[in-house]
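Repro:
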Amino acid sequence: MMVRTKTEARRSALLTAARDVFQEVGFDQASMDVIAARAGSSKATLYRYFDSKETLFTELMQNSANAQGGGMMALLHQSGGAAPDIELTAAVPVANPMLDPAADVLPTLTKFGEYILSAFHTPESLGVQRMVIAAAVNPDIGATYYEQGPLRAMQYLGHYLQQVCSSGKLRKSDVHVMACHFYGLIESEVHQLGLFNVMTTLEPERVAATVARALDVFMRAYGPDRQP
């Protein structure tokens, strides 16, 4: 057990060092020598864990995508918004369910939108997104991140939306499109500010005001009184 603990700790340290180097110089300019040195290891040790720079980067992206998408999936699963037969790839502690199909939609989506901006508009999350964008000249890398992270989160939110649409709390529509609109509206005022390193943290007041404006538009589009 002791050996395994040390092995997992070393693997984690190597991944952390790789993330920092990739963010600083990009995938093409990063080298296994520099990553090993940053982690305080030899290149031989690094190669025992990862047989190539591509393998190292792919695992890093999968971990980051799972943390993003899996975090939201765990939230939805605990809240009744996720199908029980879909495997969760990560989990975050959530004190109270946020997406309860039986509750009123507006306060529920408000709480969820504020969670999204607070949890994912951070220097760490934005740094990962920049890193993926730079490496996505390789379409396999971009697809892996999208499928493991954003797409899964979209599907789980869509499952919640399907339930509230079926009960008449929102007008019936394509729930994938609705989920895209929800996330797009939530991020529309601040995402580029974060992505381009202008504003990577948000005060609670800014989060609340941004989400309120976004949901005003969302509910005008999908509120139950609007005719198709």
